[in-house]
Please model this.
Amino acid sequence: MSEPSIAKAAPNGIRTALGVGGVLSVILGILILVWPGKTAMVVTALIAIYAIAAGLVYAGLGIFTANRGGWSRLGHILLGVVFVIAGIVAFANLGATTVWLAAFVGILVGIMWIVEGVVALSTLDLAPSRGWTIFFSIISIIAGVTLLFSPIWGAVILWWLLGIGAVVFGIINIVRAFSFGKA
Model:
């Protein structure tokens, strides 16, 4: 392959990746915005499938790996069984699992925002702008506390923001795909 064809192939590959990624992002964003509950259930189902697959792998490691000790093998088997059971329970109660997962994510993000606000306050003496750091910290802590008191509502808002962001960033990547390497 000659140099000019490699030089031509790289931008084309990047354009293709940007375009395909952009289209997939727009599709995902639209699905989240049009069918937020059903899309969340699909994500929950994918997590349940992952749990079952991981459980089978862990159990297989415990059963078929002869060079490990007995406790290691037993631990892998037990972990595998727990993962498989969790995946099956998630599938059996997909709606409830989706709500539980939304609440879990809402609480987790709320805790992270509170911690982030406190950490920002603890580094106040190192901050180039004390005012912005204090403002950020207060907003972060208030948002985190709000999520802790209403994690489902917060998760729904975050889910919508994810959908909007996916559409916007997808469109931007599609535009970038058409303009990449043209200048």
In short: Residues 3-34 form the longest helix (32 residues). The helical segments are 3-34, 36-64, 70-92, 94-122, 130-149, 151-179.
